[in-house]
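Fold this complex.
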Amino acid sequence: MSIERVLENSGMREEVVVTGLGVASAAGVDVATYWNRLLRLDSGVRRRSEGAGGTLYEAAVDEAGLAGAKAEFGVRATDRVVTLMTIACHQAWKDAGFQGPAKGRLSQRAGAILGSGLGGIQFQEEQIWRLLGSRDDRIHPHTVPRVSTTAMVTDIARALDLRGPGFVVSSACASAAHALGQAMRTISYGDADVVVCGGAEAPLGDFSVRAFSLLGVLAHSTGDPKSACKPFDERRDGFVLGEGAGALVLESAHHARKRGARIYARLAGYGQSLGAYHAVHARPDGEDAALAMRLALQDARVAMEQVGYVNAHGTGTRENDVAESRAIQSVFGTQATHLPVSSIKPITGHTLGAAGALEAVATVKTVETGIAPPSGNCIFADPACPVRVITEPTEIPKRARFALSNSFGFGNVNAALLFAEEES
Amino acid sequence: MTEILFGDDQTLLSAVADALGKVTALDIKDNMGVSTLNPSSRLREDLGLDSFAALELLFEIEDRVGIRIPQEEASKLETVADVVTFIRETLAGRAQEQRPLTEAAR
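Structure:
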């Protein structure tokens, strides 16, 4: 018998709830603005440059919003990925009702589990350029700790005095979803009462943008930047690179109720899988993605009829959206024709290792408010993607307030999270 | 070293303040954006910089004023005024070295 089964049988598995949210995104540097912009399809995508391969777009975090948040939380300048992550974590911590750093027993029982695909690549790029490009041997004296992705965890741990479990998860575009899942397990197994979790990415340096454009996965057609990314639309030609961070405070239900915290939602299920197929191509049948979704439902012991919304990975590449649609069909069968599905990437850009957390925030807001955010730019629905892509904010029936958030990384690394409405 | 600063020292002081603003979250500007950094502030005791943070401060200063601060000199700098004085003297020393060259070129 597995340890998990033993714990379940003995009733020891802790229920995990969401008590705090934070975001730093091209769609806003606070959750209220962010959610409002998702509902209004107010995209943060802008034109970056014109080149031989067409137009390049990006979704960058607004500098004024970032400066305000840095001042509010006393965040010092470090690498951009750490700055974004730290701001989102501070917001989530404050939103969860914690005043200042953790104290006493909470400090020992609180941790940080965060994800990133590329980590401090922007800082690394700058320092390598100094040394090799400008022939300046004075690279930054803190290069080692800053290039290390672990800085995301250690910075917020110091600021909030978090002394429980902490590490970084890296699984490409599934990094943040895996971080949330591992945080959920950490609390379920009783290793912590509170975990600040999420993910961040800062991939808008020339090096990363160039590297991604070489893969042919970036949207490049000319036109309005806000309609550059078109998940599930026939005309789609790729994603828009975005930077950002999302953070959630996950907490044992027992701990949250004891301190009278506001509970947004439950994190009811987590499923993960590998596709073992290709370095960048999606598995065409989508069976690996389907497995992650099925396992999330099984983990929560939820029947598919109870699921009222799927926040898709929905990158807007030719391959992802077809494979993901097949996966949704495989899991939900005939129900897939009316199950609401949307992608927020036309608004936030594809924030890679942060996407799972930014999308988890959107999914949590969906089960909290009962309204699912629309999918942008899906005008000519692709018949090869036979799912119900919603293009307006859509009410989710009370009986189906379970929502899935999908994250699939390059190399076929998959994670699915199932959030549930908190019964009041 | 002197703790009273005049003239160009104010420019150097604001470069130090700027670098300090980048490496710490200290509030060293008033609401008009003018530096309130006190030259007599001690880097370690008053500004709370440990040796790891001080290394970063000096790196940022080097970038801003275009000089190098050798490790053995860095450890002798105790106050903000010490840093400003060190920069002024280094820049003055460099100007001295360059003058004959400039004259020879004429």
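Residues 17 and 43 of chain B are 12 Å apart (CA to CA).
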